[in-house]
């Protein structure tokens, strides 16, 4: 991540001054899916050159950790280490379908862009993502509908037991116990190893077999998967 720095000596000499860009913003995120959960959200304000992810590029190790297991720790550390500000896990756990987290306040300081990520459960490596949205300087309320992306780091086999959707300790693969078992695996012939728009899951209606361990009546989704409302104070 790159950040342009101004030397303290020039600032002290008063040769030029930087505009005040500080803005208080309020963020809300709504899960628009029918039966999927979001893992802990990371809401981050940062500079124009920083990104949590970029479509068409390979996922970083930190992004892979979030997209496959819901762990936002490394992404959070990267943002704050580059003078960004974050709200980590504002929902205090999983955000269920149809639910919202609101009143998330951020003092952005001189950070000009907003990003949001969270893993979509249950999937192999899908995540809801807002990448580097420029925060308006004019006060008002702004609404966005946000897609889910595929990190490109794991095949979308839709298998829970022994597959890639087991998540991390404390994060169930299929919240609510509505996942199946003994699926043979969805044939995913995609060779796109870059971050890309997620095609959604297939699922099936066989709880004890079939191709997928996901119930298509519960877990199938199409983009967009989230509604984001930002109020600039």
TrEMBL record:
All copies of domain Spondin, residue ranges: 35-155
Pfam families associated with the record: Spond_N (PF06468)
Keywords of this entry: Signal
UniProt-listed Gene3D superfamilies: F-spondin domain
Range of residues in the leader sequence: 1-22
Protein's UniProt name: Spondin domain-containing protein
């Amino acid at each position: 991540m790159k950040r342009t720095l101004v030397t303290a000596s020039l600032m002290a000499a008063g040769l030029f001054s930087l505009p005040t860009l500080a803005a208080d913003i309020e963020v809300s995120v709504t899960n628009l899916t029918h039966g999927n959960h979001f893992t802990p959200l990371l809401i981050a304000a940062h500079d124009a050159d920083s990104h949590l992810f970029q479509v068409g590029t390979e996922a970083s190790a930190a992004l892979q950790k979030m997209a496959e297991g819901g762990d936002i720790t490394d992404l959070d550390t990267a943002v704050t280490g580059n003078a960004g500000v974050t709200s980590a896990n504002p929902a205090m756990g999983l955000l269920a379908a149809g639910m919202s987290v609101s009143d998330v306040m951020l003092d952005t300081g001189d950070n000009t862009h907003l990003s949001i990520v969270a893993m979509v459960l249950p999937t192999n490596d899908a995540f809801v993502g807002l990448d580097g949205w420029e925060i308006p300087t004019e006060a008002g309320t702004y609404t966005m509908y946000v897609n889910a992306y595929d990190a490109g780091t794991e095949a979308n086999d839709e298998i829970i037991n022994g597959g890639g959707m087991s998540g991390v300790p404390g994060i169930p693969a299929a919240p609510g116990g509505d996942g199946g078992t003994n699926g043979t695996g969805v044939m995913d012939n995609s060779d796109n190893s870059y971050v890309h728009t997620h095609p959604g899951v297939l699922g099936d209606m066989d709880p004890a077999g079939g191709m997928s361990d996901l119930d298509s009546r519960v877990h199938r989704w199409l983009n967009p998967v989230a509604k984001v409302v930002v109020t600039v104070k």
